[in-house]
TrEMBL record:
Gene3D superfamilies: Ribonuclease Inhibitor (3.80.10.10). This is Uncharacterized protein. It comes from Modicella reniformis. Keywords: Coiled coil. Residues 190-217 form a coiled coil. SUPFAM superfamilies: RNI-like (SSF52047).
Length: 1074
């Protein structure tokens, strides 16, 4: 809904003769309290306003009970809709192009009136209702003594006369309308001379009448075209009848054919689909309605063009005339060809698309002529008038649309023409670009009938509900309401869900507050949700962010018998009222099988549930989460058996403190997770008292890992020695907090060890895999806990990352691991500055004796010639196994050498992480682009150093097809620190980034600015449902604080955390904020 600066509602209007939207203030009728728009206000905004239309319907004036128009005249307010004003003598079928001016300048067509006017008229049979012969030019005789100024005026009038006919016959309606205005001005200027010269008067009057006649015929011609096109646009289809877009045009394929249209049978054509944008895709606050335009696709070659045109010729001719002249029909706007807006969105990087853009008018005209010539051949010379031809025209049936694709050469396997099918609020099936569907950050998984969407206003919500109801087959709805929804808003949602027969509903109410304007419904705000669950087919209900849910539901709604089988809720408030309401809700859910709760007061909830378990006869599964703790239980016949626990510390296992967890409950415990390092004795106690425990996870400090592993192993051996059975199969030693190990993460000030032990059934044997990231200087002393772990279980190491050891200690320790069991080493990452030549020899020996080795990560310090040669040797030897590369030191000096030796990603096909910690020279930008590009991207060379860019391309192009597979691992991580790049260099880098798998991106302490952020946001695709980007490091950049840009980034990349310490202007000071 449009509002002005004073937050008052506005009604949007547009003239049928112009694209501009005019907002007119809305007034409130004091008698009825309804919003209205005064007719006088409309007339002030549109001169000669005659009527107002909504689509094809007339908007009537408001009347009283006796159906008398109320004075002053007024119409009803239509929020969110652009009404059309009929101006002057315009009619319902009024073309958009006629009468629309582009400026004050009138261009006079200089070429003489064509001598072959008769043949031109015959060629355009379908565009005229009768032949018109204007070949005989009327000689304009000047009277003796006629002033030179008058002679010039007569000459100009004659030029305008012929220019007008040429403009009309070539379809230049805007030009023709402007010429008419100029003709009238010249005619008025010749009044004095006409009074003296009767012959001149007769000639000019006749010429003017002929122009008026031609104008009338033009309007009749366009009215016929518009009527037929409107019939096509309003044709509706069921979903199964509409497998391919119905709107398309056909153009000659090659330049050389533009003047060779006499034999259409042998000519080649290409079909281009149209995106059906219209009022139903108009953004809420936009004043300009979207226009139909060519889809973002290169088009499809037409096979068997003769057969194709014989079947679809009349239909195509209508569509070609539609884009030539423009039309407003069926809530869509087709721009006239003269405006070139039909070409908006085309990819101009393709050569043939540029050709189309430059020659669209003659291409359209020649297609029309080819179709007319084909009609003439098929009718054996019989003249076919426009009326006769259109009488044969029928809208395509579903079968016609399904067979259309058989005439096309389809090379891509994606959606036809990059278009996406939706249903409009009126129930019409339309084909749109995917980004149109995703305007509300929505995702439709057609295979499962699931919609995930985030909506920001009630108006947009109503539009979505209408589409959802008519789309059919929607089984699951996950909706986030990004505004403070009222009871009426939730009632609308419930009504739509019921009509659409949604089975599984998830509502995110995180953004709900306490609406001050909905005070009357404060205590029953969420009633529609419970009523929905009791009266419809919803079987699964999940609520997020409803913190005061039980305070905003009435008692009658609580007593409704709930039909849902799955109930999930995240709730923070759990006071006495909530406790009682919660019990009432569960008691009235006899069909409930699964209960999943996330609450602050975990144990009070368990107590509440325990008291009514006997009445929940069908309940099978219970899960309760609270402040990092989690209880999972199976339920049978009202009895709870705890099967899984996540606790912060082992002291939380105190049975006396938490009475609801009784020892008999734990007899069925199968999974236990402890977030922080436990003591060994209590842990052994748990293992002894939980005989069915099969999976244990422990977040543990690295120095305690060895002791806890050994205690678990010895406890399990004790159980087996006592001839008891042990169900323990897996022990996971994780990072503190139960964090998983990331092999691409940077080293920090801590050492991390993650181990997974797999135990055999009723045996002491076990397998083991270990990941180590070593930051502290590792000692060779026996009392070093990490060294002790390596000595005892070093055989289990699959990944080792070190950054601090000196004098080849790292290689020595690995080399000294006892070979009691087969080595499992798969990957290493190390800093080359810590190694000598002898250290590399030992390291290479370790790799050679590790049969499973497949990955190497290198942190390369480029300080001198020796370090460069060492780096080149390592990269040459292990390049195909490289998964991580970090270059730092004197990068500006030595990076060109690296880039020259390894110019393409084919040198490092498995690299997933790239980090540069220095300002790269301009000549290396093409190399960085090559490293971060996806396999499908084309390397764009930098103008700053053509030689290196050419080298990058040449090295790749000279390799054989077997060597260049065009496929490599896409980057998950890219960091560029201390860079000071030019805008063009930033553009090349950012546009090369592949966001389909990238999780970590950073430009720490660089000159990355607002312009680069805008470009980065634009480059994040809309067609990825969930962009994987999790971290964006913008610390100490030149970026100033911009709420809107950060919000837009968060909208596109929902998972991202922005690490920023950016500048913000406050008064005359610039402060930094993190």
């Amino acid at each position: 809904m449009a509002i002005n600066q004073d937050n008052e509602p506005m009604q949007a209007f547009r003239s049928r003769l112009a694209d501009e939207i005019v907002d007119i203030p809305v007034r409130m009728d004091p008698r009825t309290g309804n919003y209205i728009v005064l007719w006088s206000d409309i007339q002030d905004g549109f001169e000669n306003a005659k009527s107002v239309r909504k689509g094809t319907s007339l908007v009537p004036f408001i009347t009283n009970d006796n159906f008398e128009q109320i004075i002053p005249l007024r119409i009803a307010y239509h929020p969110g809709i652009v009404l059309e004003v009929v101006v002057g003598g315009s009619t319902q079928a009024e073309p958009t192009a006629i009468g629309r001016e582009t400026g004050d300048h009138i261009h006079i067509l200089s070429s003489p009136f064509p001598a072959d006017f008769n043949s031109m008229t015959q060629d355009m049979t379908t565009l005229t209702t009768t032949d018109y012969n204007a070949n005989s030019q009327l000689p304009v005789k000047y009277s003796d003594g006629m002033p030179e100024e008058s002679q010039s005026a007569v000459h100009s009038f004659n030029q305008l006369y012929h220019s007008y006919f040429q403009a009309v016959m070539t379809g230049q309606e805007i030009q023709a309308a402007n010429i008419i205005q100029s003709v009238n001005q010249h005619f008025d200027g010749l009044q004095a001379e006409m009074e003296k010269n009767k012959t001149l008067q007769e000639q000019l009057v006749q010429m003017q009448q002929e122009m008026l006649q031609m104008q009338k015929q033009t309007l009749e011609r366009l009215a016929i075209i518009q009527g037929r096109v409107q019939a096509l646009l309003t044709q509706t289809y069921e979903l199964h009848e509409y497998p391919i877009p119905r709107l398309f045009i056909v153009l000659p394929k090659e330049k050389g054919l533009i003047d060779k249209m006499k034999n259409p049978i042998t000519d080649q054509y290409r079909l281009y689909f149209l995106c059906e944008c219209g009022m139903h895709t108009m953004a809420e606050h936009s004043k300009t309605p979207p226009l139909i335009h060519l889809a973002k696709h290169e088009g499809y070659d037409v096979d068997r063009p003769t057969e194709f045109f014989e079947r679809y010729g009349s239909y195509i001719l209508t569509l070609m005339n539609m884009i030539k002249f423009g039309i407003i029909a069926a809530s869509v706007i087709v721009p006239s060809l003269a405006s070139l807006k039909i070409l908006d969105g085309l990819d101009t990087t393709k050569e043939h698309i540029n050709y189309i853009r430059s020659n669209i008018t003659p291409l359209v005209d020649n297609t029309i002529k080819a179709l007319q010539d084909l009609k003439s051949i098929n009718t054996t010379g019989t003249e076919l008038t426009m009326d006769a031809e259109f009488d044969k025209l029928e809208a395509l049936e579903g079968a016609d649309l399904r067979q259309l694709e058989s005439y096309l050469t389809v090379k891509d396997q994606g959606r036809v023409g990059n278009l996406y099918r939706i249903v409009t609020p009126e129930g019409h099936v339309k084909w749109h670009l995917r980004e149109v569907v995703e305007l509300n950050r929505g995702n439709y998984i057609e295979e499962t009938g699931r919609i995930e969407i985030k909506i920001e206003s009630s108006n947009l919500a109503r539009q979505f509900y209408d589409e959802m109801v008519k789309a059919r087959g929607i089984q699951e709805l996950d909706i986030t309401l990004y505004w403070d929804a009222t009871m009426d808003d939730l009632r609308s949602l419930a009504k739509a869900v019921a009509k659409a027969n949604v089975i599984s509903l998830t509502i995110d109410g995180t953004h709900f507050k306490n609406p001050s304007f909905d005070v009357i419904n404060r205590g029953r705000r969420f009633d529609p949700i419970l009523q929905l669950a009791s009266n419809t087919g919803v079987r699964s209900l999940q609520l997020k962010g409803f913190d005061d849910f039980f305070h905003r539901t009435s008692k009658p709604s609580m007593t409704l018998a709930q039909k849902f089988r799955v109930f999930s809720m995240k709730l923070e408030v759990f006071d006495e009222k909530t406790f009682q309401s919660f019990q009432n809700l569960l008691e009235d859910g006899p069909l409930l099988t699964t209960l999943d709760l996330n609450l602050d007061h975990q144990y009070s909830v368990v107590e509440a549930i325990s008291s009514i378990l006997g009445r929940l006869q069908k309940l099978e599964s219970l899960k309760i989460e609270s402040r990092g703790r989690s209880i999972a239980a199976s339920v049978s016949q009202g009895k709870m058996k705890v099967t899984g626990l996540i606790i912060r510390r082992l002291v939380d296992f105190d049975f006396d403190q938490y009475k609801f967890i009784r020892k008999d409950h734990l007899c069925n415990l199968t999974r236990l997770a402890i977030k922080y390092t436990p003591d060994e004795d209590p842990l052994a106690d748990v293992l002894l008292h939980c005989p069915r425990l099969s999976h244990v996870q422990i977040g543990c400090k690295s120095e305690r890992v060895l002791a806890i592993i050994n205690r678990v192993i010895s406890t399990r051996e004790r159980i087996l020695q006592e001839e008891r059975s042990s169900c323990l199969r897996t022990l996971e030693m994780m990072i503190v907090g139960l964090k998983s190990f990331d092999v691409l993460a940077d080293c920090d000030d801590y050492t991390y060890i993650q181990s997974i032990l797999s135990f055999a059934e009723d045996s002491n044997a076990f397998g083991m895999r270990t990941w180590i990231r070593l930051q502290n200087k590792m000692s060779s002393m026996d009392n070093d806990p990490v060294n002790d772990f390596i000595r005892q279980h070093g055989w289990s190491i699959v990944f080792f990352d070190e950054n601090k050891t000196k004098n080849d200690t790292f290689a020595a320790i690995l080399d000294d691991i006892p070979s009691t069991r087969a080595a499992q080493l798969e990957s290493l990452r190390f800093n080359t500055i810590n190694f000598t030549a002898s250290g590399f020899i030992r390291l290479d020996k370790i790799i050679q004796r590790s049969p499973n080795f497949k990955g190497l990560g290198l942190n390369v310090h480029l300080s001198e010639q020796g370090s460069l040669e060492m780096a080149q040797s390592l990269l040459s030897q292990y390049g195909t196994q490289l998964f991580s590369l970090e270059l730092y030191g004197y990068v500006e000096k030595w990076l060109p050498e690296i880039a020259s030796s390894f110019p393409t990603r084919d040198s490092f096909p498995n690299m997933a992480s790239l980090k540069l910690k220095s300002n790269p020279p301009s000549r290396c930008i093409p190399w960085i682009v090559a490293m971060i590009s996806s396999p499908s991207q084309i390397l764009v060379s930098s103008s700053s150093d053509r030689s290196l860019a050419k080298n990058v391309v040449d090295k790749r192009s000279t390799r054989s097809d077997s060597e260049v597979t065009g496929s490599w691992t896409k980057l998950r991580r890219f960091r560029l620190r201390f860079a000071k790049l030019q805008p063009e260099e930033w553009r090349q880098l950012i546009q090369a980034i592949d966001f389909s798998v990238l999780e970590d991106l950073g430009f720490y302490e660089s000159n990355f600015s607002r312009e680069q952020l805008k470009l980065l946001i634009d480059c994040i695709p809309n067609n990825i449902h969930e962009v994987p980007l999790k971290t964006l490091d913008l610390l100490y950049t030149r970026l100033r604080y911009d709420d809107l840009l950060f919000a837009e980034l968060q909208r596109k990349a929902l998972l991202v955390t922005i690490e920023k310490y950016v500048l913000r202007d406050i008064g005359n000071k610039i402060l930094a904020f993190s």
